[in-house]
Amino acid sequence: MFITLLNSYFTFYHVQKKLLIEQANKVNSSYSSKLSTTVDNFFSISEEQLSYGARLLVTHIQSGNLHTLQTELQRIHRLSHVFNSMLVVTENGQIIASSPTSLNLTGLTLHSRQHIAANKGKRFFISSPYTSLSGNYIIFISQPILDDAGNYLGYVGGSLYLNNRRVLNEFMNTQFSNDSFNTYVIDKEGTIIYHHDIAQVGTKFTDPTLFSVISNQDKGSFMMPDEQGIPSPASFIRTQKSGWIIITQQSFHSIEEALNNVMLDVLKQGTPLGIATLMILSILVYYIAKPLRQLAKSASSMEQPGVIGKIRAVKAWYQEIEQLKRVLLMGTVLLHKRIGRLSSEAHTDPLSGMLNRRGMLESMEEIRGEYKKVSVIAIDIDHFKSINDSFGHDVGDMVIRKLSQQIRKNFRKTDLVCRIGGEEFLILLPGADIHVATVIAERLRNNVANTVYVPGSQHHQVTISIGVTTFNPQKSALDIAIKTADNALYKAKNGGRNQVVVEYLSDDISLAQH
């Protein structure tokens, strides 16, 4: 009973742990969805500001007034409060205006992969993290500049520094600052864009589980090692604007702490009642289990002959035991009947009704120690294949059944009569010497030759060939005796069939000579 309570406690522990992990996944998923919406809103605002700037700057680009263009870009930069720096870049990659001017970027030409992608796309573009001309680790966001006719003039863009607490980083710290969560933002290539440990920004996210999960879905949950290396529940979601992956994770320590508190409360509230229940149940179990133990003991030996009387002797002092006793008694009676039937089926050839090889071997084991001599008669139907080929297998089966009847008539009930396969039969005669066995075999051969015909053809006589031997089962193996009888049978068939041939085991030759 104590084991049962202990098992219940640990079962409750594991169920509660699973529920807490599922709850953590739900919370993680909800939080990551909220952060995804926040990031998408941030980029929507950035896109609107750049679109507004592009519309203002197009006139200055067309007029070629770079001084006015520079002044307007600086004004837009001051008002945006989003970007660390801003650039206006022509289609051929030349920077014609930049803010702040302290970066000294105006006049330089861009050849970077990010510039080529922004120019080629001619649409709102968010780059992967890279190191800018000024040496900052940044993300660059750009919007194309088009004239009234839709001609592409270049783009205006802004940079977001990742390696210091400026703009994007401060925005993420404000939105993502929750001590209960470990939050990552990674780009499409697996580079960490945001983490509370700024030293990890710019490094590659290495957990392989995430990449196998995100390959075919945009959000989900998985187990990921936390900062202590313990697998903990985490959820992810892919942002719509940037395609970034936001991962939120609760430390397993917090889940374990909550679980331990729950289990401690269970122990405090359940222990006194559990002890009292344990004592009462122990007493009840003893009296309830006593007749059950008696029935179980009887049930463990249901195949024994005296078990039915033992079941009837059990005192049933409550209704359920009485019902169980009645059912067990009924089942035992049926089992005994079925065992007898199955045993018969397992040891009997269905066509002839004789023992099969298994039945013969088991029966021989039972009598091995009782007799010092056992004769073996091997029988084979002559030309049985031609009977099957000429008259069909149904007729062949009828011949086997008729021969089986003749064999039974010619042998004692104590003899082991066996069909070992096809048209072959084997008879073991306990206590019979080889002379008696030979006489019986010859009588059988003669009866078959005169009385057994192929059904439907009174002119097609059935004959048999017989091999006879004898052995001492306490000295020689049955297999050797059967092989000797088979050798004699083959000699009978090779000698013209429809005859009896006797062959002695080497140990019995001297006996036959006396």
UniProtKB/TrEMBL annotation:
One of its GO terms (molecular function) is diguanylate cyclase activity. It is a multi-pass membrane protein. Pathway: Purine metabolism; 3',5'-cyclic di-GMP biosynthesis. One of its GO terms (biological process) is cell adhesion involved in single-species biofilm formation. It comes from the Bacteria. Its cofactor is Mg(2+). Residues 372-505 form the GGDEF domain. Its EC number is 2.7.7.65. It catalyses: 2 GTP = 3',3'-c-di-GMP + 2 diphosphate. One of its GO terms (cellular component) is plasma membrane. It is found in: Cell membrane. Keywords: Cell membrane, Membrane, Transmembrane, Transmembrane helix. This is diguanylate cyclase. It comes from Dickeya zeae (strain Ech586) (Dickeya dadantii (strain Ech586)). The lineage of its organism: Bacteria, Pseudomonadati, Pseudomonadota, Gammaproteobacteria, Enterobacterales.
